[in-house]
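Anyone up for a design puzzle?
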């Protein structure tokens, strides 16, 4: 039995950014009129183009988002399949190629809302991947625990990293048919596992600011199939 999570289904998947840019409130309409009076129309047009360019660059920042997610009922557990998209930006890709490993953590939580108390925790899972580059073999390596795999290019490594298949997230009897549960899923770049000098460098450095979007949706397990007599 497979339950697909799509934007058009009852179990709706929504994506929320972990953090977003905040804009100051010290710009007023009156101030804007004063600025416009002091410039010619050509200068105003140039200024507007410059501001729009800044917004365009801000929206093109590095980030990781969930593209698709589905829960499958296995024989003894609930299994998660998911696909992510990763954009590290040129700077971080260069960092990897120079031999600095990057760590990616996938986080899953399952809870049940309660009106009379805090939400009930049902299950949570976490998986860490280490992405590194070997200059001698000119290969990228993706490892998790005792498992590892080599790749000829960063694109090939991302092809595996961004696809999650059959990840056990909850026991089969943890969810009750017909009841609604809240699901949250994300993948993030974990700078806390970097070497200490790079942790200091990453603080406040926009090149290391990779937005991790959180996908949230409500999931209701369907009733078990009736056994034909």
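Challenge accepted. My sequence:
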């Amino acid at each position: 039995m497979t339950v697909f999570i799509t934007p058009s289904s009852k179990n709706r998947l929504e994506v929320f950014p972990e953090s977003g840019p905040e804009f100051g409130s010290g710009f007023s309409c009156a101030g804007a009129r004063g600025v416009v009076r002091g410039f010619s129309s050509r200068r105003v047009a140039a200024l507007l183009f410059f501001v729009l360019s800044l917004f365009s660059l801000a929206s093109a920042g590095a980030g990781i988002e969930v593209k698709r997610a589905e829960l499958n009922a296995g024989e003894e557990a609930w299994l998660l399949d998911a696909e992510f998209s990763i954009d590290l930006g040129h700077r971080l890709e260069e960092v990897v190629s120079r031999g600095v490993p990057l760590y990616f953590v996938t986080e899953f939580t399952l809870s049940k809302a309660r009106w009379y108390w805090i939400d009930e925790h049902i299950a949570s899972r976490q998986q860490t991947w280490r992405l590194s580059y070997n200059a001698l073999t000119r290969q990228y390596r993706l490892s998790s625990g005792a498992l590892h795999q080599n790749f000829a290019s960063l694109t090939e490594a991302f092809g595996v990293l961004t696809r999650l298949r059959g990840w056990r997230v909850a026991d089969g009897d943890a969810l009750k048919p017909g009841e609604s549960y809240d699901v949250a899923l994300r993948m993030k770049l974990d700078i806390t596992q970097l070497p200490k000098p790079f942790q200091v460098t990453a603080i406040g450095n926009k090149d290391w600011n990779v937005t991790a979007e959180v996908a949230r949706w409500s999931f209701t397990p369907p009733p078990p199939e009736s056994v034909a007599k």
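A detail worth pointing out: The chain is about 25% helix and 40% strand.
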